[in-house]
Amino acid sequence: MNDFDLRDATIADAGAMLALLRSVATEGDSLPFMNDVERGFIDSQWLGARGCVVAYRGDLLLGMYRYGANMPGRGSHIATATFLVAQQSRGQGVGRSLVRHSIDSARASGFRAMQFNQVLATNTAALSLYRSLGFKRVGRIPEAFAHPRDGYVTAYVMYLDLRQPRCGD
Amino acid sequence: MNDFDLRDATIADAGAMLALLRSVATEGDSLPFMNDVERGFIDSQWLGARGCVVAYRGDLLLGMYRYGANMPGRGSHIATATFLVAQQSRGQGVGRSLVRHSIDSARASGFRAMQFNQVLATNTAALSLYRSLGFKRVGRIPEAFAHPRDGYVTAYVMYLDLRQPRCGD
Fold it and tell me: Is the CB of A138 less than 8 angstroms away from the CB of B138?
């Protein structure tokens, strides 16, 4: 049993979400943003996404995800998603719960696949998690990110066919 | 010698650009849009791009491209671009001129690489052109596009290291 709860995000979560996003962005292992994320970004890109879910233990925000179509129109049958877990809340299954929840939501919404456009090679925890849930590596982008510590690092494109049975349960 | 000219697009080109974009979108081999492209999209996403170039023969718009950063922040050293050539103007070197021009512009602007996120397997002319100019296939997305004739088709991620000498001259 997890000791945290997942629920849809609301406007009341926006302040904590912005703080989490800024904190994770500083690490430079997942988000491309540097010091330029404003509250309006949470409103439009997170709360305004097809789905936006937060994980709380009591009143502490542990992590969050958003998902939606990766492309418009003729590419809109493939979902993409972004996951963030607070530094002090890692290794507790929060990320796995969020990713599973997003997969179930995207499948239930009729998406045929889920694609992550840029997962950094330095983000080994995320890569392991995605692989354990059935994601396949379908692309490799050289020098995709300017990492604050490691310089230009490779990113992978990860892909899950949502019409297959769920893996990693 | 080409019998057409390339120049920066201006607001006066927007009407012809919208017509070209709608026409190419209908084919379903490159753009994801269906019947939903409005004039504001040209203004914001094309004329508002880092660079936006049109190819004319006399007063006839033959093709166009836009380019800019593929990602913000830590991913902003990689450019991406979109190229459109009018159906009746293909096979005349317009696309090759546009792609070469975009490569030179992106390199001169300091981008380290150029990446196309989705080139459809059905768009064989584009794939041949990109390969001849040195682009490598770095990803393969299954069922990326719902093609109006061929159903769900594969797309490739194409990548060019701009720090290498130009190919295909």
Answer: no
